Amino acid sequence: MNNGAVGIVGAGCICAAGDSVEEVISALYSGKRNPVPPVAFTSELSEFPPVFEIFSDLTRFAVHENHSRTTLLVLVAIREAMLQAELNDSVLKNTRVGVALGTTVGCTLNSESFYREYRAGRMPNVSPITKFMSNNPAMAVAEIYSLMGPVAAVTNACSSGADAIGVARDWLNSNLCDIAIAGGTDELSRVAYLGFNALQVTSNEPCRPFDKNRKGLNLGEGAGVLILESEASIRRRKSRPYAMISGFACSCDAYHPTGPHPEGVGLERAICGALADASVTAADIAFINAHGTSTMDNDKVEGCVISRLFGDNISVVSTKAYTGHTLGAAGAIEAILTIRGLLDQKLPGTIGFEVPDPACKIIPTDRLTDISGRFALSTSLAFGGSNSAVVVQLDS
Amino acid sequence: MSIALLGIGVVSALGCGVDALRSGIKGITKPAIAPQQVQIPEGTVEILHYEAQVSGLEKFVSPATLRRMSRFSQMALLASHLAVKDSGMDLKDTTRAGIIFGSGYGPLQAGFSFLDSLIDGSDSCPSPTSFATSVHNSLASLVSISMQIRGPSLTLSAFDCTGSAVLATAELWLDRSSVDYVLVGLGEECSAVHAYATALLTRTEGAIRPFLLNSCTYVPGEGFVCLLLGKPNNSFASLTCELGEGESTVASVSPIVFAATNGDKKTGKYYEYLLGGGRQVRSFSSLYGSMPVGIGFELACAAVCLREKLLYENPVESKYTDNGTQDIPPDAEIACIQYDERGRYILLKLKGAG
Which CATH class, in words, describes the domain spanning B3-352? Predict the structure, then answer.
């Protein structure tokens, strides 16, 4: 492996496009998506921005009755990833396993019903608080699987899932653990739904990443988990990595609390840092799974940076067109779909995209597209000006 | 890897800055502990909390900016500026400086403010500003904008696992040279809901008694501590970080240990092995309050002791640990340790430069 690269030995994913990596990628390749008005909660909005909601029964995955939907989602993804990675109880018991999971909803005490009761002086039961305290996703996973490696819940807003992968990779490279469960998870939340609506960045129609007529994002829910393993542990366990995280970098715009820097200088630093970290150049990158939220500002800034660094012919996709914006899970789900793109040597079309926007300077895939190469990039941008870039590589 | 502790910024119930902390450690200043009457089904109870004293931020930001900031943001920003000022350094290439902030609970009050705007207004017009401020990394974002720190930025939140993840990650960033400096920040804020939950969930037995390890003497604290860390150089102290579980062999042989015990009965048992045996054990939580991120404050207290070349006595008398204030050599080493609920620890060894 490259210096600093870590092996990917398992992946699991659940989102509105499917309950497993295979289901999700099949939906993407067949151009299916299902944005609908939210069912999980109601609101008094005059128009309902659609969401990408999961309708599968998750309760069968509950280990404890107090587990939140955000925790259940990540348990689904972990189960799939662990099966692929052949992580059984014996391995978990005898190996230092760390957990780095990104989240936004999962670390926020936003029980509206509790707070309404509290404000009204009705002295509500504090069970929503105890539930919050027992559902920090990273801590819950460490508890459920009795893991004694390092634990980090990354709360870097929309880049949390990607940043968690970066944190886990650092742990493995520094021998803090042998195996790391890395990813992100978030459930749909009425509070986040109304918050994004208040920021006027949601669209009342299905999202259209990089399209000239895009109107904003659609929220989604889901979880994505990678099982990462150090080179020494791979040799010891004789496990079979099928891809690697070979580069990661993040940087901060230091510009605006919610919007990206108009020139994308922070994103450019993150991408260049990740390429350098992976010891590759822009020419080595087969395609980019962009953050591509479908907001006016994000897509314009991101498109311009991609065009500036990679030229106009680089293949770009936004898989949020199929999953919605899953917040703390987004970077992890997109890293997983990036790996699948490399493995399959093809990319889905960016569904919803129809009319190129000259301001974005790139044209994303509009149909199933063959690609060729061993390296790909996944980018994440976040509130607070955080930018992250992950380089994934097929195992050599 | 050993890293350099370059500067400390503290905002706590003792006041702002290292001088205020030192004054508290010496017993000259008492922490501001505020009572709050809380209605619970059993009646009205008084809940105490340590109230951070935030002042002086106007030296660093404009009044207009200051007015728009939440109280928690003010704590974080003030502690950040104070840490850099304390270092005496000018962060020139700010792309080579990173930020890692952590909070056990995050900006809870901003989240409640957003809910207030929903309840008082309507679903269609809640406060976008409160929503943006309720996102955990809003504090790091604010600091990055104010100080133009443009390197990597990370925010972590996992109750009493937070401090270990933040400090271990800072060490890794410096170790792999992705940055030259890391501004580490750890803090919490108190709120009325916090007091309500404390009243219902915690049967506290009064003021914090950090060495009554089997008793709950939890009194919520708030504040923010920032540490400017860098690569090894000629700073006044160097730091190493170790994660582990169970009894720390390093801590058990260290002659001076600062334990982040804070009146939390669930973790108290893990510190028992450190008491006795002639070891000098200190805890200063009775000065800053019970917080998931107490390790940051203990580290700041250890740094003050190393600068003063004095090991101050415990602020709360303890038959196990108190030998009074003593001289310590310039190259003394202080081990700071915090356990989480599952018995995992972070051990920070802070060594004076000599």
Answer: alpha beta
